[in-house]
Amino acid sequence: MSQLRSERGPIDVAVTWIHNTAPEALSVIQHEFAYQAEEWRLYHVCGSRAWIKPPFVEEVDSCLYRRIILGFVWEEPVARWLTNDEIACGVIRAIETDQPQSIIGEVEPWERRPGY
Question: Which of 22, 32, 70, 102 is least surrounded, with the fewest CB atoms within 10 Å of its CB?
Fold first, then answer.
């Protein structure tokens, strides 16, 4: 990340999609960019479970945390997970609207998730 900072300068937007196999990754990213005096936005793409149990996120100076939850699409009579295009468009929309939390697709009713 030091090389990235030296090559590109301050970061104003970071989009992350971190799986639970790297539980410290979000904190590392936040602290790497915490040196910046200007605010920056961290868009954290999360699986649907974040609707039920939001991940712990530290408050870090200058970091404006934004959560993006990936839901599902209900297509009678079944539900399906989002496509790559739906995820990409939803993340772009979340960045454009800049809300503390965005949901792509649906998360309720929870029991309608694909495979459950």
Answer: 22
User: pLDDT of 43-87, one tens digit each?
Assistant: 999 999 999 999 889 898 889 999 999 999 988 888 999 999 999
Phi then psi for 69, rounded to 5 degrees? Answer: -100, 130
Q: How far is CA 2 from CA 9, 31, 32, 105, in A?
A: 10, 12, 8, 36
Which residue blocks in the chain are alpha helix, DSSP H?
2-8, 25-33, 84-97
DSSP per residue over 38-91, as a string? Answer: S-EEEEEEE-GGGGTSPPP----TTEEEEEEEE-EEEETTEEEEPPHHHHHHHH
Q: Is 77 strand, coil or helix?
A: coil
